[in-house]
């Protein structure tokens, strides 16, 4: 995968081990690398729209900022919780899952997370290709006829759309194939580069609009008194839900951290500090579109397309492309690479796992998925209902049951005496907690009567997963198993 060496002992079973899944010999990432990771994750089309939507909830600016800060502080807290086990052991998310779900059972949570990432990888690539399409048409306006899907289209995407999509797909694959060290270098400059260009665009829009004509309350204040409380709580939940995917598999990156304190500092800079700055830049850009174009534009691709300066359009489009490539690689490429490799480590390398995800993202025709909310509702949303419960089970196991102690060598053995063999390689209590804890979030997706709980499904699922797993497992269970193992040895 990269130049980072892994520790592979002779006792490790080949069916559970490869160079990419084994514990790292040396952890080299500093706080800036983690900070840059979060910049790449936040600076995207989805992040732009999400941040802008918070300012359109009918709250005033300080209420939105307070909701934003509380939400991102919650994200930071839970990210630190999930990060520790991987940083401590030098292992990625699917391997850490072995300690909780069993050395074989870990494939289930890994595949769930991997499938979600594949879908969003395709969608994010499609969004980035839309920005690239703007650049093509700026230089070659006569080609616009080939952007008409009704005349020149295949499987719901225009010929020019296919060219844009596949070019972006190939570019991301090249960055990924170069290895984790190259990915680190890419995100180290991509996040700051997006900031520089966004700041320049904000200045340009303010100059065009006039500062006195910009109102940061995008939809006008609609609530006062105690009526603002449920709206603010909903905004907080929206922020947490948005980051739920990267939070769950953050161990794929925290494993590289020099120390846990390094991870915490990187998370502090990358989450509350970075997210606040990005959100303010976003809302200024969105608010400025009203006096400049006569209407609020929350879609950054549409906003860039309306700019009347060719250089600015190209710069803005390239920025959107870089931003989307950044989040796609860190959130939706690296994750399934580890997840699918974990299914059969001896046959599927990290690179092969990533390419399986990349190829799969083409076959799901993500443009059709993105343009059909009902399909997303019954596929990605249902898979997403498992994220909260998985998180709850993992942290309950690591902090309350295993008391933050993991026997790394036992994560790589199929020996029936191994701590994480449980019963035939599966920890049944983890699944007994996961299934009912996922039921309520799934019902919120399927039943219109429960749609009001949709923004809170991560909290509901996480809470139930945490409580049920803790109820099914006594804290001393792991210690007794360890003592038994020691006596046998």
UniProtKB/TrEMBL annotation:
The chain crosses the membrane at residues 34-56, 62-83, 118-140, 152-177, 189-207, 227-248, 268-290, 310-331, 352-370, 382-401, 430-450, 456-472. Its main location: membrane. It comes from the Bacteria. CDD domains: SLC-NCS1sbd_u1. GO terms for cellular component: plasma membrane. It is found in: Membrane. One of its GO terms (molecular function) is nucleobase transmembrane transporter activity. It is a multi-pass membrane protein. Keywords: Membrane, Transmembrane, Transmembrane helix. InterPro entries: Pur-cyt_permease, Uracil/uridine/allantoin_perm. Belongs to the purine-cytosine permease (2.A.39) family. This is NCS1 family nucleobase:cation symporter-1. It comes from Acinetobacter pittii (Acinetobacter genomosp. 3). The gene is pucI.
